[in-house]
Design brief:
Layout: E1 2-7, H1 11-22, E2 27-33, H2 36-46, E3 50-54, H3 62-72, E4 77-82, H4 88-96, E5 100-103, H5 108-119, H6 127-141, H7 148-151, H8 156-166, H9 171-178, H10 182-196, H11 201-210
Domain HTH luxR-type: 147-212
GO molecular function, one term: DNA binding
Keywords: DNA-binding, Phosphoprotein, Transcription, Transcription regulation
């Protein structure tokens, strides 16, 4: 059972999301918050698996709330809710420890899928869109290749694995691209995470962009 907390200052949004998630056999909404401060407190009390986090909320915005939640409980997965007109929050959310993002106007079926994907540790939902947004923000806002020192610790094979992660490939797709078995690909991914000091694909993608391993706007 995937336990979920919904943090959004709009009552109708919370109710809509709750109705959809509670209708799933494998999900249960355990709490709702209308502001960031309440969201942080609820997560400390309820220890949910996934948090749906709006960015714009009173008292404490979603980015800072995410930072505090992840700092208090590393296992929780935060899914940032965003819109195309505030894309800059995607990168801020990933820096804060979010596991991915979901467009607020996405179909409700996508919401269900996103919660399952994130709770399973597959950090990025809709990776093609995510790469474009992160890449564009990195190109215009990030400091000059701050991830170089981290990437320098990787072997040539691990560096290639990181490139493939940044392209949004799953472990199975990485295995196919490198002509190896999936378990070996999984081991490579785990070692990349350990060497970079990241907890999931979202943060690994961010390092790859900052290090210049992936050029914004390209697919290779």
């Amino acid at each position: 059972m995937i336990s979920v907390v919904i943090a959004d200052d709009q009552t109708m949004v919370r109710q809509s999301f709750r109705a959809v998630l509670d209708a799933q056999a494998d999900m249960r909404v355990v709490g709702e918050a209308a502001d960031g401060t309440t969201a942080v407190a609820l997560c400390a009390e309820l220890e949910p698996d996934v948090v749906l986090m709006d960015v714009r909320m009173p008292e404490l915005d979603g980015i800072e709330a995410t930072r505090r939640i992840v700092a208090g409980r590393q296992e929780v997965r935060v899914l940032i809710l965003t819109t195309f007109d505030i894309d800059e929050y995607v990168f801020g959310g990933l820096r804060a420890g979010a596991s991915g993002f979901l467009l607020k106007d996405s179909p409700l079926d996508d919401l269900v899928t996103a919660v399952r994907v994130v709770s399973a540790g597959n950090a990025l939902f809709a990776p093609t869109i995510t790469r474009r947004l992160i890449g564009e923000f990195t190109r215009t806002h990030a400091s000059a290749h701050t991830g170089h020192s981290l990437v320098a610790e990787l072997t040539a094979r691990e560096t290639e694995v990181l490139r493939l992660i940044a392209r949004g490939l799953s472990n199975g797709e990485i295995a196919e691209a490198l002509v190896i078995v999936e378990q070996t690909a999984k081991s490579h991914v785990s070692r990349v995470f350990a060497k970079l000091g990241v907890r999931d694909r979202a943060q690994a993608v961010m390092v790859a962009y900052e290090a210049g391993l992936v050029v914004p706007g390209t697919t290779s």
